[in-house]
Amino acid sequence: MSIIVNQDKVMKMVAPLKALFLSLLFSFICISLCSATDVSYDGRAIIINGERRVLLSGSIHYPRSTAEMWPDLVQKAKEGGLDAIETYVFWDIHEPRRREYNFEENHDLIRFIKTVQQAGLYVILRIGPYVCAEWNYGGFPVWLHQIPGIQIRTDNQIYKDEMQNFTTLIVNMVRQEKLLAPQGGPIILTQIENEYGNVQWAYGEAGKRYMQWCANMAVALDVGVPWIMCQQNDAPQPLINTCNGFYCDSFKPNNPNSPKMWTENWTGWFNKWGQKNPHRPAEDVAYAVARFFQEGGTLQNYYMYHGGTNFGRTSGGPYVTTSYDYDAPLDEYGNLRQPKWGHLKQLHAALKSMEKVLTHGDVTTTDFGSGTKATIYTADGTSGCFLSNTNNWNDANVTFQGNEYFVPAWSVSILPDCKQEVYNTAKVSTQTSIMAMIPNKAEDEPAQLNWAWRGEKIKDTLNGKGSYAAQQLLDQIKVTGDSSDYLWYMTNVKINKNSAVWGKQMTLRVNTTGHALRAFVNGKHVASQHGYSFLLEVPVTLKRQTNQITLLSATVGLGNYGAFFDLQTAGIVGGPVQLIGEGNTTMDLSSNKWSYKIGLNGEQQQLYSENSRHVFKWSTDELRINRMMTWYKTTFKAPLGEEAVVVDLQGMGKGQAWVNGQSLGRYWTNFTAPDDWCGKCDYRGQYDERKCLTGCGQPSQRWYHVPRSFLRSGINTLILFEEVGGNPTQVTFQTVTVGTACANVYEGSALELSCQGGRTISQIQFASYGNPQGTCGSFQKGTCEANTAFSAVQKACVGKTSCSINVSEDVLGSSGCGNITKRLAVQATC
Questions:
Q1: How many other C-beta atoms are found inside a 10 Å radius of the C-beta of residue 777?
Q2: Residues with catalytic annotation?
Q3: pLDDT tens-digit profile of 604-627?
């Protein structure tokens, strides 16, 4: 029997049902995602829709990554156990020119917030609009500096009008998109100003009035969620003052009805050119978090959870590197930094299991002496406990409620039922990953890149030709508006033919406020120097008649912190510039007629852009290397796979880099850190940024992030501007992946290892079950071990992308170690 179906009739019957289904689906989604969220608080909790919460958050700054990276970063934050993402709002990128706005690409704040919302996380929006953040000029647009009569961050009406305009703009944008919690959006907290309490004293009574004005202005915006002020002990109600720092367990809000919030738990520190790389151990970060919640904490935010990259000219300081990795749980490229990410994930799970008792009921403590104590939270017949040992060196054995516990020095144990320890901050069971740089294996990619070059045209400035002139030495920031790192200062000196000076050696002395300076006399380069503020002195010989002096000043990021940081100058402002002759005779050139030119000719021609009309004017003749003021160009194919891409600029000096017209940022590869001591790192004891350093004698930054979204499937273009001289033939493209994976896990738990990007474990370099010694990269056998452990690990892991092994004698064999607590240590190659 055959059945004939009239398709048109069926479609007409189905259409209403389909419409009804879609309507119901939309209503369900709207009810689920768009319903209003009530956010309130008391002294013990953030209260969301009546539910008392402790919240874990992490900072991810949208312009320090790309829009294509955001979903992966946010998802990894969620998998790491976070409830919220915190970000600043960066005024300078959104209003680069007064009343001209940019919210495109990785500046798309609304898209970023919606990405977080789609992942099911909350948002903490730090509008500021001053951000600090090691960001150029603290996030202020430099055009503010140019407004007559303005005084920034104080009771100055001109500044307050500009700040209120931008703050209101941002609030209206998120309100229009229904992103505030009362509208069903993810934004549960907003911040006004930033760390003003650290500098308020310098502004006197005007500073107090300004702080009060900020609070009143914010409240009047009626966002429907609490406003916070970090590092502001006198924050007026209803604003909540919060803590920033490496440790905030002893912080107390200025009102007993305000929750205890930690807006910046510094997971590491930022890098600076010419300095070593700072790292903060996972054990210490976890210790600080556990102590904070032991002492009544409500909300804790990691600064940073993903640090990212200072693309373009956004790094501040000055002298802050292009990498803003910050030793964060997600590295600069978005990879898991292990063991930090995994160790904190386990901590978050332990804390969440105690959320009810942490936000309700009674708190009691038992002091055992010598820096050890127990904190007991009790509510509705259930209890959760912390055991802490704040001693720097001495481990402790604690008897608590009839049970014995081993609490290592500088650690906290968490007992959600006050009986079983489920987590200790010093006992790391998570994998340690050592990342490797893998050479570009794109098809038909040559072993060495082929380069073209062209010199920066500087004949005009060497001859003193500028855009305008003044009878004084001007502030570089004021002149350039920070439109370029570079400003040329040019003057001439006439030597009478009868003068005894010509033909004799003199000293050219230049006093500058930084950050780098190159000096030319009569068309020849005579000296270079860099520093924050410094004196350049160089011997010169002048000729009869006219001598041309040309000085190229370069900034390396503008200041971002401190009272009146906005008034810091750069360049040769005021000088003096002098010529010193025999007998200390001095010729002061400071009041000469000085000509000025902003930027490089190559910048004006946009040599970094594929749309430049000068794009074809490159030389393929014999490559000139170690040549100052030179542009280099090459093409390459994108590395295969999906792993993060970097360009290794080893061999280069100082300059800027672009891929397909997108700025990777400044590079300064030949500026190395002091080659003195980068010794072992002990997590115990108070951490600061001078502790746990690496990179002695190495470039402060050698690898530069090339986001996959900057690349295309065919041919890509890399442009370098080299200021001081380098060798581009050493430049290569690489991918970043896990090279070595280690773990050191106590019995009773599972040891887990994994590679990345589909790579498999190719070799077990070390495996010992017993009492192994050392750390990843330097494991050694102890005094006892199971003979069958190595082969058991090989069988479980080799050839697999990941493996899991229960650490027990049943799986690994008898160790002969007696009654000691045994461990399994493994080191594997991916």
A1: 12
A2: 195, 264
A3: 999 999 888 887 789 998 999 999
Q: What is the pLDDT of residue 616?
A: 75
Distance CA 662, CA 685 (A): 43
Question: For the chain, what is the total number of helices (H) and then of strands (E)?
Answer: 15, 43
Q: Which of 757, 751, 753 is nearest to 798 (CA)?
A: 753
DSSP for 621-665, please give it.
Answer: SS---S-SSEEEEEEEEPPSSSS-EEEE-TT--EEEEEETTEEEE
Distances in Å between the Cα of 290 and the Cα atoms of 53, 338, 426, 428, 825 are: 16, 19, 11, 14, 26
Percent of the chain with pLDDT over 90: 90
Residue 817, C-beta contacts closer than 8 angstroms, at least 6 positions apart: 770, 771, 783, 784, 785
Contact yes or no for 653/722 (Cβ under 8 A): yes
When the pLDDT of each residue in the chain is averaged and rounded to a whole number, the result is 94
CATH of 747-829, one of 3.40.50.720, 1.10.287.1700, 3.40.630.30, 2.60.120.740: 2.60.120.740
Give Cβ neighbours of residue 143 (< 8 Å, ≥ 6 apart).
97, 98, 481
Average pLDDT in the 290-299 region? 98
Two tokens, residue 143: 């055009």
pLDDT at 11: 40
Cβ within 8 Å of residue 138, ≥6 positions away: 130, 131, 132, 316, 559, 560, 561, 565, 566
Look up residue 466 and give its two tokens. Answer: 């500028």
CATH code of 360-421, in short, is 2.60.40
Which of 121, 102, 103 has its CA nearest to residue 60? 121
Residues listed for the chain: 830
**Span 347-389, pLDDT tens digits:** 999 999 999 999 998 999 999 999 999 999 999 999 999 999 9
Torsion from C-alpha of 342, 345, 351, 356, nearest 10 degrees:
-160
Region label for 603, one of left (φ > 0), alpha (ψ between -120 and 50) or beta (otherwise): alpha
Question: Residue 7: pLDDT band by 50, 70, 90 thresholds?
Answer: very low
Query: Is there a contact between 248 and 298 (Cβ–Cβ < 8 Å)?
Result: no
The residue type of 403 is: N
Fold of 459-599: Jelly Rolls (2.60.120)
pLDDT above 50: residue 3:
no
pLDDT confidence of residue 245: 98
Ramachandran area for residue 815 (φ above 0: left; ψ -120 to 50: alpha; else beta): alpha
Task: Tell me the C-alpha to C-alpha distance, in Å, between residue 177 and each of 23, 110, 171, 172, 226.
Answer: 21, 8, 10, 9, 19
How would you write 204-245 as a 3-class SS string?
HHHHHHHHHHHHHHHHHCCCCCCEEEECCCCCCCCCEEEEEE
Q: How far is residue 209 from each of residues 170, 204, 222, 709, measured CA to CA in Å?
A: 23, 9, 21, 46
What confidence score (pLDDT) does residue 9 get?
A: 40
Name the class of domain 435-456+604-735: mainly beta
Question: Residues 317-330: pLDDT tens digits?
Answer: 999 999 999 999 99
The rounded distance, in Å, linking the Cα atoms of 701 and 699 is: 5
In this structure, are residues 169 and 163 in contact, taking their beta carbons and an 8 Å threshold?
A: no
Residues 6+ positions from 800 with CB-CB distance below 8 Å: 760, 761
Segment 486-527, tens digit of pLDDT: 999 999 999 887 676 777 899 999 999 999 999 999 999 999
Helices (H), 558-607: 601-604
Q: Describe the crossing of helices 340-352 and 282-294 by its angle, rounded to 10 degrees.
A: 20
Q: How far is CA 143 from CA 92, 147, 150, 165, 169, in A?
A: 9, 7, 11, 15, 18
CATH for 28-353 is 3.20.20.80
Task: Please state the separation of Cα 649 from the chain's center in Å.
Answer: 20
Q: Map out the domains of the chain as residue ranges.
A: 28-353, 360-421, 435-456+604-735, 459-599, 747-829
Examine domains 360-421 and 435-456+604-735 and report if their fold is the same: no
Q: Which of 739, 817, 812, 827 is nearest to 779 (CA)?
A: 827
Task: Specify whether the CB–CB gap between 315 and 139 falls below 8 A.
Answer: no
